[in-house]
Design goal:
alpha/beta; elongated; DNA-binding; about 220 residues; 8 helices; Rossmann fold; 4-stranded antiparallel sheet
């Protein structure tokens, strides 16, 4: 899941980013509304965690542009105000959820993941193809009955490939959805991660390389 954190208080923004990355999310960070809108032009974010009270380009304007035209991106709006009127107004601007500051890290993460699930077409709770099973809620995966000890990125790649339901997924699409802006797009990160993932499968051929196109299960 690809997330954009937009918060002008750099310490809070960096803290949110660290927590999300530790939990296996791909996260980009913007400290102002203009940068956020520029990033959203190039990246199809699943969720944007958006501070409402941004200087220059206000969070309300950012929210309106992000959700214009029925965009798939979900917006979780943050604000220092906890009044019901402000929550109603924020949701009326197109935000999908609203969380007042200060907040609990566990709640922020849970709400973000819930919005991420809503950003995609409804899928079975457990992703399966053949003997490969992955449970996104429990963060577990198995192959032919054997539990797979996966890193966060390996889990993300496997989940995305299973969710593609047999479609060949280009490497740059995996890079965009499982990694974030700190990853050099010219690296062999995707190939190396897929290769490590294969070594943990009961049958390495379960993940196929389609020359010149990408990977599929």
């Amino acid at each position: 899941m690809r997330v954009l954190v937009v918060e002008d208080h750099t310490e809070l923004a960096d803290s949110i980013t660290r927590v999300f990355r530790r939990e296996g999310l791909a996260v980009d960070t913007a400290y102002d509304g203009r940068t956020a809108l520029d990033l959203a032009i190039d990246v199809d974010y699943d969720v944007v965690v958006l501070d409402r009270d941004l200087p220059d380009v206000h969070g309300d304007e950012v929210c309106a542009e992000l959700t214009a035209g029925g965009a798939r991106t979900k917006v979780l709006m943050l604000t220092a105000s906890a009044s019901i009127a402000d929550r109603v107004e924020g949701l009326g601007l197109g935000a999908d959820d609203y969380l007042p500051k200060p907040f609990a890290w566990a709640e922020l993460l849970a709400r973000t993941r819930a919005l991420g699930r809503r950003a995609h077409p409804v899928r079975e709770p457990v992703l399966a193809r053949g003997s490969l099973l992955l449970d996104p809620a429990r963060r577990t995966a198995s192959h032919a009955g054997t539990q797979l000890p996966l890193t966060a990125k390996e889990f993300g790649v496997l989940a995305y490939l299973l969710g593609a339901e047999g479609r060949t997924v280009p490497a740059d699409e995996l890079l965009a959805k499982v990694w974030d802006e700190v990853t050099d797009p010219g690296t062999t990160t995707v190939k190396a991660t897929v290769n490590r993932l294969r070594t943990k499968l009961v049958d390495r051929s379960a993940i196929q390389t389609v020359p010149g196109e990408g990977y599929r299960i």
